[in-house]
Design a protein that fits this description.
Length: about 400
């Protein structure tokens, strides 16, 4: 029996917090080694992190696939690192048709594969734990992107991020919008453009804001639905365009980013999706209710899941609903990992329910008990997308805010 199975069994029987701590130590080792790998192999080549950290664990000689989406044209590097009980981990990168793109099968703890893309496309990364002394061995993996072939310092990317924060504060914060999803970054030459695909989850009002570095005086955004229909555009002469859309369901959208004026090429940009809760229906969508809900999620995790070996996996999802309203959130889960999806709501909500469905629409788990902290669980047999339905069963003062966290062990 390997280390992970032993831990899961003992935690389930005895709830020993020191074992959960041990698990987190191995995962932390992998994250630290990944950071070292980035600085030793990629930082001085102009690469910068894009997207979320991906984590997992494997036994000796086991492997698994991780699917990633690379947005638009650019040079990407995918780096992995494993914990101290692992002496060799390999990466193999395939395109969505199964063609081999790159591989790193050196005897090492920090493999790197690279690809130059011409469009937004999905890729499959096969992670193989070639040598693991004490099973399972933990790994961490992240995608990095280089702007303009590494010809300019990564501080330009930071300028774009800082300008995006300023754009949010000046245009969206007092309108009740708050960030949802990951930061999207890239770089473009003067008059060049590229497309970025985003998924907007469920019903809501969304704003997509972009900003560019100090050598850019004009960047434009155009938003299209999945059928190519124009939804909104911002072609003002500005460094911080914003486009908006109100959705009725989960749908993919295409964003065209155009670097209209760039003095020193390439110019870096940063972009993020923001969502407004409750449509401004009388409560502060970006203020204390949402903040207290986030803190309540942290407390619920510590009280109910942390000592059972769970740790955070992926982003937190937030929203607001009127009484008896519901909306869906899509999440991507990896095979053979045990997941718990936890939701909480604010003080004006006395009952919120969760329903979990697989990608075929089959119900996997539900929690419809009368409480403010529902939990649903699943251990997928393969990498797949799952739909989480959030229902605000009882809300005294509308809308009520909620937060959903995904945790794994």
């Amino acid at each position: 029996m390997n280390r992970k199975i032993v831990l899961a069994a003992v935690i389930g029987l005895l709830s020993l917090p020191n074992l959960a701590l041990g698990q987190s130590v191995y995962a932390s080792q992998a994250r630290d080694n990944l950071e070292d790998a980035y600085y030793s192999q990629l930082a001085d080549r102009g690469f910068d992190a894009t997207g979320e950290l991906i984590e997992g664990s494997l036994g000796d000689s086991e492997d698994e696939d991780v699917w990633i989406t690379l947005n638009g044209r650019g040079e990407y590097a995918i780096v992995a690192a494993c914990d101290e009980d692992c002496s060799d981990i390999d990466l193999h990168l395939y395109d969505e048709d199964g063609n081999s793109i790159d591989l790193d099968v050196r005897v090492s703890q920090d493999p790197v594969v690279e690809v130059t893309t011409s469009r937004t496309e999905d890729y499959r990364v096969n992670v193989k734990m070639y040598s693991c002394g004490t099973e399972p061995c933990y790994y961490a993996l992240r995608v990095y992107r280089r702007g303009g072939g590494g010809g300019r310092d990564v501080s330009y990317a930071q300028q774009a991020r800082d300008n995006l924060d300023d754009a949010y504060d000046s245009q969206l914060a007092d309108r009740g919008f708050r960030a949802t999803g990951e930061l999207i970054e890239g770089s473009l030459d003067d008059s060049a453009d590229e497309d970025v695909w985003i998924t907007l989850d469920g019903r809501g009002t969304y704003a997509i804001a972009a900003a560019c570095d100090e050598d850019c005086s004009d960047i434009d955004l155009s938003l299209y639905d999945e059928d190519g229909n124009s939804i909104d555009s911002d072609q003002r002469v500005s460094e911080d365009p914003v486009v908006e859309v109100t959705t009725s369901r989960t749908e993919d959208y295409r964003l065209n980013v155009k670097m209209f004026n760039c003095d020193t090429e390439p110019c870096y940009y940063a972009m993020r999706v923001y969502r407004r809760g409750g449509g401004g229906r009388g409560r502060d969508a970006g203020g204390s209710f949402a903040q207290r809900t986030r803190r309540a999620l942290d407390r619920a995790f510590e009280d109910g899941l942390a000592d059972r070996g769970y740790f955070e996996s992926g982003d937190m999802f937030e929203g607001s609903l009127d009484e008896m309203e519901e909306e869906d959130v899509w999440i991507s889960l990896r095979r053979n990992q045990s997941y718990a999806i936890l939701a909480v709501c604010d003080e004006d909500c006395s009952d919120i329910d969760l329903y979990l469905y697989d990608e075929d629409g089959d119900q996997i788990d539900t929690d419809t008990s009368i409480d403010q902290e529902p939990v649903v669980r699943v251990t997928p047999r393969r990498n797949a997308d799952y739909r989480v339905r959030v229902r605000m069963y009882s809300c005294d003062t509308e809308p009520c805010f909620y937060a959903v966290g995904v945790y794994e062990r």
